[in-house]
Each structure stands twice: as C-alpha cells, then as structure tokens.
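Run log, item B.
One chain of 282 residues. Sequence copied directly from the ordering sheet:
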Amino acid sequence: MTENLTPTATAVPTETIALITGGARGIGRHLSEAFADAGYHVIVTATSASSAETAADEIGEATGGAVTGVGLRTDDIAAVKALRESVTAVEAETGRRLQVLVNNAGRIESTEGPLWDADPESIKGVVDANVLGVALMVNAFAPVLMANAEATGRPSRIIDLNSGSGAKGTPAYAVYSASKASLFRLADSVVRFGHDQGLRIFEMAPGVVETAMTKSMPVHDFRGEGDWTTPEDVTDLALALASGTLDAFTGRYVRAGADSEESLLAEAAAGLSGTARRLVLG
C-alpha cells in the first residue's frame, strides 16, 4: 500500500463507513454533514442517544446521505464496546466497511487560568474525554480498520482532532494542551504498529472555528468577522486526509486554514524529514 500524492475530487468508495465521535454539533456536525454529502455512510455519536439520532435524521435529510446515530461516552469502556457491536451491525446491514474514524469528541477546561485554579472535576473530564476516550476508540476500532484495509486492499484512516494547543501549548488551558499533546504519542504507536497493516493516522488541528465552545473562551474574545477558520477549510482538509491523497502525512500534524490538500501535496513532493510536523524535542 503506497502513499498517494495525486489530488482526487472526493473519490469515495461506495462501501465506506466513516465513524465520527461527537458528530452531532459543533465541528463534528460540520464534519458529519460533509462526509455524508461526499458519499460516506456516516455513524454519528453523541453522549445522548436521542441527540445522536436526531442529528443523524437531520443530516441525512439535508444531504440525502446515509447516516446512523448512536449514543456514546468515549471514556466508558462498556459504551465503546457496545458501539463496536453497533458498527458491526451497520456493516452487516449495509454491506459497507468501516474505513474512517474521526476522533472529534473532546472537552476543554471550564475556565482559563493557572492549573491550580481549575476545577478538579473539569480537569478529570478533559483528560477522560481527550486522552482516555481517544485511546479507547483506537483500542476498539484499530483492529476493525486494519481488517477492513486487508479485505479491501485500501488503507483505513484515523483523523484525530488535535489543536495548536497540543502542538505549541496554550498556558491558559494547561490540561487541554497536555491532552492534545498526548495524541501525538498515541499516533506514534499507531504508525509503529499499524502502518504495515494498512492503518494511517493524522493529527488535524481545525484552527479556530466559530462554535459555542470557542465563543465561550475568553482567549478568543478579540476575534471578529474574518478571524475564524471556516468550516469548509476543516471539512475539505478532513476529506482529503480520508481520501488517501495525503497518506505521506501519517502520524503528522496538519492545520486547517493554514494547510490545504494542494499545499500539503507540494510539501510532500519536496520531501518530508523524519521529524517534520511531529512533536519532538531538539
């Protein structure tokens, strides 16, 4: 399975399923709509089953795509196992295979400032959602993705919603920054043990999209019209990563709004060093 360096216009195999955690609202909702519109069968999760099912109905009606809603807490082992059973059922029912996982669900501290002023429950919630949740999803679904890669002869792909806070740090949100930095280490393991099995993984920062979460953060109070990353920048980059054209960036960091499929293809063609776009010291 070689890396593709040729642009493709949303060439989606009709049998592909994309699983998007936290896909009922915010950035996840934009991603769910874009993947459904592009021809994927989308499985949307939300902590509330009713919210996931309502979102799935709305997205399916808006896009004409096939969308399934499932309730999930990504940090709940039993819930993740149950989701795997649900995905297996969707595969059996539709004849499609899961080959894209988007780890979008996440949290940020309820307040900004020094770590010692943060609410302990908020700290735990961020780590549970952003680190444990992603680790449990990879633990449960990497075997499925690798098996489907072997069956189809096409790599499967994981897209983690990372952040500039993970790559560079945001002191006012120390736990969130630490949680996103940890995803680079999880990705290293996926690359090490999954690449030869047809698994690719990307650390994609969405930039700063105008959502309820970002609007609630004082650190973004200065932003006005034109200072936000557009949802289209995020969805276009995610679809490009899922398509396989950017597989040279497996295990690496990309940022919507700053990077595009075209710019990344040019960068890859010029040659990527072993540490380029990775979180390393020295």
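Observations after the first pass:
- Residues 120-152 form the longest helix (33 residues).
- Residues 5-10 have pLDDT under 50 and may be disordered.
Flagged for discussion on Thursday.
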